[in-house]
Records
---
Amino acid sequence: MKDLFSLTNKKVLITGSAQGIGFLLAKGLAEQGADIIINDIIDDRAQHATSQLRDAGFVADACAFDVTNGQAVNNAIADIEENIGAIDVLINNAGIQRRHPFTEFPENEWDAVIDVNQKSVFLVSQAVSRFMVKRQRGKIINICSMQSELGRDTITPYTASKGAVKMLTLVCALNLRVITFRSMALRRVISKLT
Ligand SMILES: NC(=O)c1ccc[n+]([C@@H]2O[C@H](COP(=O)([O-])OP(=O)(O)OC[C@H]3O[C@@H](n4cnc5c(N)ncnc54)[C@H](O)[C@@H]3O)[C@@H](O)[C@H]2O)c1
């Protein structure tokens, strides 16, 4: 039973994990045997969090990149896969909050919240799943919120983004399941022909 939940040698990438919930997830999963890859937008902070895990005896690496920048994301994921190892689990955790009355909400702050909370889930999941699909293996976990279900005043883009992450999770699962199923079916056909 214990082995069923073992994360020994599983590589877990957690976005926005230099602090807060992401860092606590990193510690908790490391305690269960996972090798952690700490991502954050600021390198120093990612390095500091990684050092804290290493000092506690865990396996950890830092990989700083901006989760809203598609090119940076693709480069970083390719670099992790080549130099750190195959990502077994991705946790899309990076998120920001901005508060203003609905009628006053600045467009640039709307964009920032949507980019970090929502677009990044698409970008990082897409980059990581390209490798996972090839391996026919992997897990992606998206951090939603009560605001995926409930509205609240002053946090309009946060609520919109977390609602979207819930549906993004569903559509990702549908897409990736189909790809995996098709590949497996294809494999079976090929193995019968050869
Ligand atoms: N704190 C809560 O009460 C709460 C409740 C429900 C859900 N959540 C969700 O949990 C997640 C973590 O929340 P938290 O409270 O720990 O946040 P936090 O602000 O403590 O940490 C978020 C981290 O994300 C990083 N980050 C921000 N923009 C980034 C970018 N562009 N690229 C890479 N990293 C970036 C930040 O530097 C920071 O270290 C978020 O998705 C949040 O919406 C939080």
Note: DSSP finds five helices and five strands in the chain.
---
Amino acid sequence: MHAVIINGSPRVQNHSNTNRILRKFIDGFCEAGNTFELYSLSDITTWDFAREAYEKNDNIIFALPLYVECVPGLMMEFLETLPSKNKDTKLSFILQSGFAEGLQLRCGETYLKILTERLNCGYGGAIVKGDNFGIRFAEGEEVEKLTEPYKEIGKIFGKEGDFFNSKCVSFTGPEILPWLLRVYIGIYFKTGAKKNFAHMAKSWGCDKPIEYKPW
Ligand SMILES: Cc1cc2nc3c(=O)[nH]c(=O)nc-3n(C[C@H](O)[C@H](O)[C@H](O)COP(=O)(O)O)c2cc1C
């Protein structure tokens, strides 16, 4: 099986969580001898190639982060340039996000189904998974550990060609976190998180306070 994989994140490839997730997914997908081509929409100079691959192939995977509850603006711009196809073309999706609860990705997931219809394609399902903020801050072995579960998903897609398998459906995890954990997270974001974000920003070379408002 051959798949065209399109990373819809506006973050440059080196820093994109989606890209790190895809590396593992592709490891699993290629195990049975499958092949792929990967395009990253953050590099606008590759859009013509990505569009051409979309037109010529019938097995397309869009991998995207949730940005403000839905599809990133840059990816929307790309989608608007795509031609209508036919139902033999299958669109499948890897939708991943920062916050952990499955519930907050469902609006985006529903939109992806509508999008598939509007592009006149067949729907190959979606992997829906949150709790990925940490990938951006991890390094080395820690990144491998956090992204490892996506390898299994890649293997399943490599065999079945879609995300309808029950393992893919349950991959999301909890729809809503237990209330005590939600209270804890709320307190953390109002206290310790601010300190940690300031520390991280400094380690990335930021020389202004994180509340700094240049405009
Ligand atoms: C502008 C922006 C908006 C975001 N909006 C959401 C959101 O609504 N819900 C959520 O859970 N995560 C949100 N996130 C977090 C990203 O989905 C998450 O960090 C993702 O792993 C980033 O993937 P990327 O590095 O490939 O872009 C947002 C991140 C950014 C930068």
Note: The mean pLDDT is 96.
